[in-house]
Amino acid sequence: MTGTIARFTLEGVKDADVTVYPFATEDGLGLELTRFLRAESDDVVLLVHGLTSASDVFIMPEHRNLASHLLDNGYTDVWALDFRMSGRYPYDTETHRFTLDDVALYDFPAALRVLRRQVGDRRIHVIAHCLGAVSFTMSLFGGAVGGIASLTCNSVSLTPRVPAFSRLKLTFGPNLMEYVVGLPFIDPRFGDAPFLTRAWMVSRLISLFHNECKERACHIQSFQWGAGRPAMYEHENLLPVTHARMADLCCASGLHYYRHVRKMINAGNAVKYDPKDDRYDALPDDYLSNAAEIETPLLLLAPERNKVFSDSNNHFHRILEKAAPGRHELAVLPGYGHLDPLIGKNSHLDVFPRIVDFIKRHGA
Ligand SMILES: [Zn+2]
C-alpha cells in the first residue's frame, strides 16, 4: 500500500484552514509550525512528535487522527511542530552532534515565541511523544519555556528507562554503527538498499531475528528503538496500511541522541549532556532538581506494553507524586505499545478521549 498515501500529506485533517509558519532557531536551523484552524478558541493545542517521526503521526489520513479528534472536540486551533528531530528535514541524516539540550534550549522556545505571537495569552496545551516528550519536559522543567496550561507526555518524559537489551544497544550501538559499519544514522529504508551494500547487510542481519512480519522497515524500527517483535507498537493495533508505510512515518534518525539518552538512563533521570559546555548554562545540570515548583499539570501516558521506554512514565509519576502530590496524573494504556497510542486504529476510542478529558479539566 506504500505510495497510495502521499508523504507529508495534510489531507488527514479536514475542514481546517492550514497555515505553515516557518521560523529559525537561535543556533540557525529552519523549522516549521503547521496550524490547523477552524476557529480561534481559548485553548490552543500544540503537538510535538518524537525522534524518527514528524508531525505526520498526528495527521495521518488513514485513521481518525489526534489533530482531527481535537478539532472535533472543541479544540479548534491545533498546531503541529516539526522540530530538529523531524523526519521532514535533512538534519537527522546529516553529520551532527545535537543533543536533547539543543532541542530544549533552542527549538521549543523559538516555536512558542511564534505561537504566542499568533495566539496571544490564550492557554496552550502541549501533547508530546517519545524524545519530543523528554525534551519538551526538559525545556519546561529547565525554565526555557513557561506558561504552559497542561502537558501530556506519551511513553516517556524525564526518567527514561529501557529494557536490558536496549541498554546494551545504547552502550555499543552508536559507536558500532559510526565506527565499524560506517553509517552515522539508521534508516528503516535500509531494506531497499542495493544488494551487498552496508545498509543492505544491516537490514538483512536485523531481519534474521524478526519473523513476526514481512516488513523490513518494521524490523529495523524494532532494532532501532527497543526490545521486542515488534518493539514500537502492537501489530494488532495498527491498520495494515499504516504498518506498510512505517518508513514514511518513522524515518532515518541520527545516532548521537542515543548517547544523551544513555547518559540519562545511567543517571536515573534527564541530565545535561555536557555540564562543562557553557552554551547550555541557562539549563540545569539535573532537570529534576526543581520538580516541586513546576505548576503545569502533566498527564503521563503509560502504555502497558511499552517495549521502547518500558515503565518510564509510571516511574516518573511516582517521583512527581513525592515532589508535588496530586498535581500530575498517570494513565496506563492496556494493550498499547510505544507509538500505537498515537497511530493506532482505535486510538480515538482508547487514548484520545483521555487526553481531551485531561485538557478539559485544565482549560476553559
Ligand atoms: Zn511489522
UniProtKB/TrEMBL annotation:
Cofactor(s) listed: FAD
Keyword annotations from UniProtKB, A to Z: FAD, Flavoprotein, Membrane, Oxidoreductase, Transmembrane, Transmembrane helix
Database matches in SUPFAM superfamilies: alpha/beta-Hydrolases
Pfam families given in the database record: Abhydrolase_6
Sequence ranges assigned to domain AB hydrolase-1 in this UniProt record: 45-341
Entry annotated with the keyword Electron transport: no
Domain of life: Bacteria
Protein name as it appears in the record: AB hydrolase-1 domain-containing protein
Family membership noted in the UniProt record: Belongs to the GMC oxidoreductase family.
Signal peptide extent: none
Species annotation: Actinomadura fulvescens
Biological classification of the source: Bacteria, Bacillati, Actinomycetota, Actinomycetes, Streptosporangiales
Transmembrane segments: 126-151
